[in-house]
Design a protein that fits this description.
By secondary structure, this protein is mostly helical. It has three helices and no strands.
Length: 112
């Protein structure tokens, strides 16, 4: 239970960075923290104490197997998150080239 609360705390720290900070770089770091907290939460959902990998279930007791589905989903999430993060960083760089600042309060409007 404590680990789930720590995941929630990590999520709240990332959410604070996204909602309260006005610097684009700090907002991107907050999004990364949120993503990693969700990945950690999904891995913790499939965790079992003294669990075994479900490689060969013929000779093993099925009751103490680790669920592999959250691990597979997290691997997919990491790849998708990397692509999204690269896109967000590229957009932030383009905004900096156009306006000369990462502060979103100083950017009046976006032009194409």
């Amino acid at each position: 239970m404590t680990l789930y609360l720590l995941c929630l705390l990590l999520f709240c720290i990332g959410l604070y960075g996204v909602l309260r900070k006005r610097n684009l770089v700090k907002m991107i770091v907050g999004l990364g923290i949120i993503e990693y907290s969700m990945n950690l939460f999904f891995v913790l959902l499939g965790y079992r104490v003294h669990g075994r990998a479900p490689l060969d279930a013929r000779n093993q007791d099925i009751l103490n197997m680790v669920d592999p589905l959250p691990q597979a989903l997290v691997l997919t999430s990491i790849v998708i998150g990397l692509g999204v993060m690269a896109l967000i960083i590229a957009i932030a760089i383009r905004i900096y080239e156009k306006y000369g600042t990462f502060d979103i309060t100083k950017i009046k409007r976006l032009k194409g």
